[in-house]
Write a structure and sequence with these properties.
Layout: E1 6-10, H1 11-24, E2 29-33, H2 35-39, H3 43-50, E3 55-58, H4 61-69, E4 76-78, H5 87-94, E5 97-100, H6 103-111, E6 118-124, H7 135-146, E7 151-158, H8 170-180, E8 187-190, H9 192-198, H10 202-205, E9 208-211, E10 236-248, E11 253-254, E12 260-261, E13 266-271, E14 288-291, E15 294-299, E16 307-310, E17 322-328, E18 334-335, H11 337-343, H12 348-353, E19 361-364
Parallel strand pairs: 1-19, 2-3, 2-9, 3-4, 4-5, 5-6, 6-7, 7-8, 8-9
Antiparallel strand pairs: 1-10, 10-13, 10-17, 11-12, 13-16, 14-15, 14-17, 15-16, 17-18
Helix pairs in contact: 1-3, 4-5, 7-8
Length: 365
């Protein structure tokens, strides 16, 4: 019998969350962002739930080839553009749209020989300070691209640094609109947080929105708002079972480093899940977990292959009992991935992407 840990991808939840993004940003077309192997869900497993999107956005050519192999004939956008000149050949062959964020990429296009001009998204650095042309250099970059026969339509994009935070987006929205004023082309500036928080504002949603974590059931502004607040459904469940039960007495310790000491009698469950499965090692005692759909807590340090849970709320639970590390339990109870991530000092995005290859994954229609 295989080890009991497994992950489930919920296709219906992906479909629901995509529709939720559409409702939040009416009249905009939606990029389904499937970078990082669809945020750890697997592009092939997530595709059926996301195929109603208007396009797919991702990072590398191998991911683009996988989406095309699934039969997708619509737009695919390379969010970071090409990484070397020869990548443009595959862009031509696969019909990819791609970001342009630096002078080198414009130089490569100028030297590229193609019979079919490329569709590009010129990226602005409006304050994130990762990729893109500053507002002061943006129009000059557009003029260079616009003069190239290798380039067809030019669209415009930027990325928000604080759509989920206190500073907000007004300063970046202003910089973007000022620099692109009167330039012809479609525009895309909204990420998941902006879709949910500002999708009703026409000057923010614009022509395309880029739906990332919202598709996968994570709240981009957690803990200010939860996935349930945004009417999002969990798309990934990580579940296992109890493989051992221990009866502790006062003074007994648990796990490496003896980080937890029982204050009195305690029934402890041992779960087949550890950091080698992608569960955060730094999750402390008290991290939420569901056993048979009942909320309880982890106890002691997370090991490579096991972790311990407090069975006080359900002392009848024994070997084989269902344990939900995040996602939806068999009873229907939900443990948001964002809560587990917060306990471990990280974000739900990382937990999704860190699911280990050794964990079996199935898609549920």
């Amino acid at each position: 019998m295989p080890r009991p840990i497994h992950a489930t991808i919920h296709t219906a939840a992906l479909r629901h969350n995509l529709e939720r993004a559409r409702r939040a940003a009416p009249d905009a077309r939606v990029w389904a962002v499937v970078k990082a192997n669809a945020y750890g869900h697997g592009i092939e497993r997530a595709f059926e739930g996301l195929r109603a999107a208007d396009g797919f956005a991702l990072l590398d050519l191998a991911e683009a080839e996988r989406v095309r192999a699934l039969g997708w004939r619509g737009p695919i956008l390379l969010l970071e553009g090409v990484f070397e000149p020869r990548d443009l050949e595959l862009c031509s062959r696969l019909g990819l749209w791609h970001a342009v964020h630096c002078d080198a990429q414009i130089d490569w296009l100028a030297a590229h020989k193609t019979q079919v001009p490329h569709r590009v998204f010129l990226k602005m650095n409006s304050g994130m300070n990762r990729l893109g042309f500053t507002p002061e250099r943006y129009r000059a970059a557009w003029a260079r691209l616009n003069a190239l026969p290798q380039v067809d339509e030019i669209s415009f994009m930027t990325h928000f640094s604080d759509a989920d935070g206190q500073r907000g987006i007004a300063h970046q929205v202003h910089a973007f609109h000022r620099a692109t004023q009167d330039l012809p082309g479609e525009r895309s500036i909204s990420n998941s947080a902006a879709i949910l928080r500002h999708g009703g504002e026409a000057d923010v949603r614009l022509d395309w929105v880029r739906a990332g974590i919202v598709l996968y059931g994570g709240a981009p502004d957690h803990p200010e708002r939860t996935a349930a607040d945004w009417e999002l459904q969990p798309t990934m469940t990580l579940a296992s079972r109890l493989i051992g039960v221990q009866q502790l007495q006062a003074g007994d310790t648990v796990g490496y480093g003896s980080r937890f000491t029982a204050e009195g009698p305690l029934t402890l469950g041992v779960v087949a899940c550890g950091y080698a499965d992608g569960y955060p090692r730094h999750c402390p005692t008290g991290t939420p977990v569901l056993v048979e759909g009942v909320r309880t807590r982890t106890v002691g340090r997370v090991s490579m292959d096991m972790l311990a849970v407090d069975l006080t709320p359900l002392p009848q639970a024994g070997i084989g009992a269902e344990v939900t590390l995040w996602g939806r339990a068999g009873s229907g109870a939900v443990l948001p991935i964002d809560e587990v991530a917060q306990a471990g000092g990280t974000i739900g995005y990382e937990l999704m992407c860190a699911l280990a290859p050794r964990v079996p994954v199935t898609a549920l229609a």
